[in-house]
């Protein structure tokens, strides 16, 4: 409507000019007048992000392990600029900071979700902040009223936390005449986060404190490249925490069979959970390890032979594959021993007219068409979205008193003009068509031999399967003396590990040890 009004105004201006003025310079002057009118209209009436940085803080308390910890919750913005100093984006964040004790520097962890383009409300309201939304597990959350409770598994006892919304998501917005293409891409996104983190460090005088990155999903892709860029720019990190990782988006370029090998242990964990495994072992970790060995060995070798696989070998591999996946031998042979994710999610519980979730395969859904090829929706996503969005916005306004006329965007995709540039300039200056940031993380760990990396994984995560993560990170080709700096942890949960309250508690304890070990 505003665009139509501006166009009408432009037409009226042009028609009202004297004939003598409607010559070479007239269109330019009329266009200038329209531009001024539009700028004035935007300034007066449109909801825009602030160029001047805004903060809204409140002092609070939370109980962790029987100890009361006072902290400051802050909602605010960081303004990032180009090389000339011109503002290009306003970055929204929420921070939770506590006083340092005993004269020791206090760690600060920068936390973000993935997408790409996702806001960070999922981690902010579900994981380690001092408050979190109460969820049941693994079932769809009931409609409002929702419940936001003090979080006994917050990390505020170990680190300050800064949750950041990527440009175009949440309340983060592009400023002035900057273009979406300047932010929507692997390297563009990393550059924006590097600037935002550096700005926070400068503004809050945190140069001397230990610094960590914690990303989830595509956020781990960001972390791999971001760790290298920050190290290269002189901002040294103490640790990188990878939650539900995907480090290599170029996996399809190295052959489809790698995908099937990477998924197999997750298929096995899912079949185990839903009781589709014959003679089901009591211990999930042991069963998963057996699946790893089979996937890396006989299964990978069989797939590599393609159509030349002997019939006897195909039969033997199909039987073993059936033992791990719970799918019939005949079905597996008809699928050429290669079951795509959508098919597995539909086929495993087809006889019950149920599908399994992608983000968390413990969740089940019901399709209208039980004979279909793939699930109609992801029950592990639809079951929790409303609770997270509603509770976060209520928390911001009711508890922190942060007010804005902007609409909180779950993803930058909601703002339009979202086209992601998947190319990536690796540390060796070669351009990848699709990003594989294991080289960046490996380079960061070599540049900074004290940098420690912790990989956190859900057994039931079919969006970013844990075995693919292992295979990627173990191909960083670290020197023997650096390999202890890379650690892995696993939980009986899906992509959003924190949806499982028991898994969240264990994960929090693992992270507390991670921070404590670094402090020593």
UniProtKB/TrEMBL annotation:
Signal peptide extent: 1-21
Single GO molecular function: carboxypeptidase activity
Entry-linked InterPro entries: AB_hydrolase_fold
Domain of life: Bacteria
Keyword terms of this UniProt record: Carboxypeptidase, Hydrolase, Protease, Signal
Residues spanning the membrane: none
Name of the protein described by the UniProt record: Carboxypeptidase C (Cathepsin A)
UniProt source species: Edaphosphingomonas laterariae
């Amino acid at each position: 409507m505003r665009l139509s009004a501006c166009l009408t105004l432009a037409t009226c201006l042009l028609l009202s000019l004297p004939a003598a003025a409607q010559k070479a310079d007239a269109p330019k002057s009329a266009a200038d007048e329209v531009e001024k009118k539009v700028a004035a209209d935007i300034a007066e009436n449109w909801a825009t992000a602030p160029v001047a940085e805004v903060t809204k803080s409140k002092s609070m308390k939370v109980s962790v392990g029987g100890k009361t910890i006072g902290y400051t919750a802050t909602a605010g913005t960081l303004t990032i600029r180009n090389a000339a100093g011109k503002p290009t984006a306003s970055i929204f964040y929420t921070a939770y900071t506590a006083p340092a004790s005993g004269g020791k520097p206090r760690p600060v962890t920068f936390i973000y979700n993935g997408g790409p383009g996702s806001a960070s409300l999922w981690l902010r309201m579900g994981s380690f902040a001092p408050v979190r939304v109460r969820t049941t597990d693994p079932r769809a959350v009931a409609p409002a009223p929702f419940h936001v409770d003090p979080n006994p598994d917050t990390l505020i006892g170990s680190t300050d936390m800064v949750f950041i919304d990527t440009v175009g998501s949440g309340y983060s917005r592009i400023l002035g005449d900057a273009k979406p293409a300047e932010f929507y891409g692997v390297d563009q996104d990393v550059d924006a986060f590097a600037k935002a983190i550096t700005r926070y460090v400068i503004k809050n005088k945190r140069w001397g404190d230990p610094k960590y990155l914690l990303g989830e999903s595509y956020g781990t892709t960001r972390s791999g490249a971001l760790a290298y860029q920050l190290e290269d720019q002189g901002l040294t990190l103490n640790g990188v925490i990878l939650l539900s990782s995907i480090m290599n988006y170029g996996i399809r370029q190295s052959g489809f069979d790698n995908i099937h090998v990477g998924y197999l242990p997750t298929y096995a964990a899912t079949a185990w959970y839903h009781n589709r495994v014959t003679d089901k072992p009591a211990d999930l970790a042991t069963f998963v390890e057996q699946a790893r060995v089979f996937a890396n060995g006989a299964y990978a070798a069989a797939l590599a032979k393609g159509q030349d696989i002997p019939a006897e070998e195909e039969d033997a591999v199909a039987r073993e594959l059936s033992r791990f996946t719970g799918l019939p031998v005949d079905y597996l042979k008809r699928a050429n021993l290669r079951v795509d994710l959508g098919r597995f999610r539909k086929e495993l519980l087809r006889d019950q007219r149920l599908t399994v979730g992608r983000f968390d395969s413990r969740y089940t859904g019901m399709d209208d068409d039980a004979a279909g090829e793939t699930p109609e929706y992801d029950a592990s996503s639809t079951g929790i979205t409303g609770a997270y969005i509603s509770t976060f916005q209520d928390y911001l306004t009711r508890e922190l008193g942060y007010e804005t006329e902007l609409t909180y965007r779950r993803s930058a995709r909601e703002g339009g003009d979202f086209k992601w540039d998947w190319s990536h300039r690796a540390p060796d200056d070669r351009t990848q068509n699709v990003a594989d940031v294991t080289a960046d993380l490996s380079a960061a760990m070599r540049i900074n031999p004290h940098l420690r990396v912790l990989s956190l994984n859900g057994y039931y995560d079919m969006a970013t399967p844990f075995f693919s993560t292992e295979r990627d990170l173990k191909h960083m080709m670290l020197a023997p003396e650096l390999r202890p700096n890379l650690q892995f942890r696993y939980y009986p949960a899906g992509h959003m590990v924190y949806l499982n309250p028991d898994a969240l508690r264990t994960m929090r304890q693992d992270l507390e040890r991670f921070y404590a070990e670094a402090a020593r």
